[in-house]
């Protein structure tokens, strides 16, 4: 024990006396006496221990370690939160696909495999056409025949034994399809002369190439469109888009893919949902120079959404009427088109008695530069598009055949009747657009992505 001697002034109000517990006074640990000068001397006996500095230092280090650990765990929680958002989105997509499977799993699987067979038959037909046209027995064609044959066998095998491997065959199918695309580009007979108008117009179309069933995997999405940016900007040279709906009314959703392969595989897409004030209508929209051009009804106008700046703009077209649409679908009053000469919009007016009016759009001011009045009644046409300043209108021949029956040249102001027939995969379609960046015709054919190679008369 050690002895602590305190010299205190004898005062009832002394805080030092008040600091010592009463029980310690009574236990004998504290004794008091008074010296000759009248001062009170207290003798306090404390345990013989030193101050635990080492333990305090240890506790300080433990405290620092705990604070660091808490920060680490907090950072992990932030990362987990971000991952959770991604996983929840993926889960929603899986739930949507599962709902389709649960509603009619047999039909879904049957539809997918039947679609693959149809596309493989289209491939085989196109390879045969190329081979006959070139009068060639190149090993390249034999290699493609073998690959198509092997893919057909694989489709049948997977459908019979393991339907869960559908995505595997889709991936292989996408590779084969891109290989065929490259084969097409390498052949002089269909090699496009991009940007050139050194021809007298359309000579013929290839057979339809059924690219894919729509990204919603539903036969109900028959209204819509798809395609490729007709004037791609740097860094987005292969931008593809898709939008479709179950009714011809509102247009509000678009899906964008960085390239053709991602479109085929339905992955890595960017979804744009138009806000309520900017919802569109009709299905004759296009993507041009990284902007969506579509019809807006409040007010009735042509509208532009810039994907780069995420800004909206609109222009009311004097004379354009909402009373006239194409034969296959309602509300298609404004039809946007792009060709080698620029950007266009087609519509019908009361002043032109329901016949199509062609208007050239100034891309910088987003205004109308000039207009041409054609002689074709809009409601008699299935759709229309522009190539090198010439408008071509289509109409149905029968359930399997479509026909380009009319053309109007904005340079000469001359119109002529035509009969250029081409096959359809399905009876009706809601979007038909020419793309000058690859000289192909893009059609949204009752829920299917379809393309045609355009052959021009160069004589």
Main β-sheet description:
5 strands, antiparallel
Question: With helices defined by DSSP (H or I, 4 residues minimum), what is the helix count?
Answer: 7
Tell me the number of strands: 25
The assigned CATH architecture of the largest domain is: 6 Propeller
Distance between the termini: 121 Å
Point out poorly predicted stretches. 1-20, 22-27, 186-190
Shape: elongated
In percent terms, what proportion of residues is strand? 35-45%
Describe the structure.
- With 459 residues, this protein is an alpha+beta fold.
- The chain has three domains: 2-46; 105-186; 202-456, Neuraminidase (6 Propeller).
- Helix content is 31%, strand content 36%.
- The chain is built from seven helices and 25 strands.
- The protein has helices at 15-19, 22-27, 53-103, 105-134, 139-161, 166-186, 260-265, and strands spanning 2-8, 30-34, 40-46, 202-205, 209-213, 223-228, 240-245, 250-251, 253-257, 269-273, 280-288, 291-297, 300-306, 311-315, 335-339, 342-348, 355-362, 367-377, 383-387, 390-398, 401-409, 414-423, 431-435, 440-445, 448-456.
- The strands form six sheets. Strands 4, 5, 23, 24 and 25 form a five-stranded antiparallel β-sheet that branches. Strands 8-11-12-13-14 form a five-stranded antiparallel β-sheet, with no helix packed on it.
- Helix 4 (105-134) packs antiparallel against helix 5 and helix 4 packs parallel to helix 6.
- The chain is elongated.
- The chain starts with a strand and ends with a strand.
- The model is unreliable at 1-20, 22-27 and 186-190 (pLDDT under 50).
């Amino acid at each position: 024990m050690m002895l602590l001697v305190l010299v205190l002034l004898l005062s009832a109000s002394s805080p030092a006396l008040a600091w010592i517990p009463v029980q310690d006074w009574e236990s004998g640990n504290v004794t008091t006496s008074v010296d000759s000068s009248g001062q009170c001397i207290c003798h306090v006996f404390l345990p013989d221990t030193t101050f635990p500095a080492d333990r305090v230092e240890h506790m300080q280090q433990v405290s620092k370690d705990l604070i660091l650990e808490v920060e680490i765990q907090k950072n992990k929680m932030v990362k987990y939160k971000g991952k959770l958002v991604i996983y929840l989105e993926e889960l929603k997509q899986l739930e949507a696909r599962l709902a389709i499977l649960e509603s009619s799993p047999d039909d879904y699987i049957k539809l997918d495999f039947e679609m693959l067979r149809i596309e493989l038959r289209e491939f085989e037909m196109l390879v045969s056409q190329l081979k006959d046209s070139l009068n060639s027995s190149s090993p390249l064609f034999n290699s493609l025949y073998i690959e198509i044959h092997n893919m057909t066998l694989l489709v049948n095998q997977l459908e019979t034994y393991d339907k869960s491997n559908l995505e595997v065959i889709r991936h292989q199918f996408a590779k084969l399809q891109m290989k065929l695309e490259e084969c097409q580009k390498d052949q002089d007979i269909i090699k496009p002369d991009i940007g050139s108008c050194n021809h007298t117009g359309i000579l013929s179309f290839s057979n339809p190439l059924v690219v894919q069933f729509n990204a919603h995997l539903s036969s109900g999405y028959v209204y819509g469109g798809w395609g490729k940016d007709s004037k791609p900007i740097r860094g987005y040279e292969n931008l593809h888009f898709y939008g479709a709906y179950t009714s011809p009314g509102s247009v509000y959703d678009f899906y964008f893919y960085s390239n053709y392969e991602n479109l085929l595989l339905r992955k890595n897409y960017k979804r744009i949902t138009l806000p309520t004030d900017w919802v569109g209508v009709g299905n004759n929209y296009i993507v041009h120079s990284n902007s969506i051009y579509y019809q807006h009804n409040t007010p009735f106008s042509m509208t532009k959404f810039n994907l780069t700046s995420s800004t909206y703009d609109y222009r009311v077209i004097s004379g354009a009427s909402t009373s006239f649409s194409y034969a296959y679908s309602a509300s298609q009053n404004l039809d946007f088109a792009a060709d080698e000469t620029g950007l266009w919009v087609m519509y019908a007016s009361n002043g032109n008695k329901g016949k199509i009016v062609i208007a050239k759009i100034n891309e910088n001011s987003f205004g109308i530069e000039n207009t041409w009045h054609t002689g074709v009644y809009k409601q008699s046409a299935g759709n229309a598009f522009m190539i090198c300043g010439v408008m071509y209108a289509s109409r149905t021949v029968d359930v399997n055949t479509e026909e380009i029956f009319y053309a109007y040249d904005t340079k000469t102001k001359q119109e002529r009747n035509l009969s250029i027939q081409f096959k359809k995969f399905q009876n009706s379609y809601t979007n038909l657009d020419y793309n000058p960046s690859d000289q192909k015709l893009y059609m949204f054919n009752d829920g299917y992505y379809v393309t045609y190679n355009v052959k021009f008369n160069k004589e």
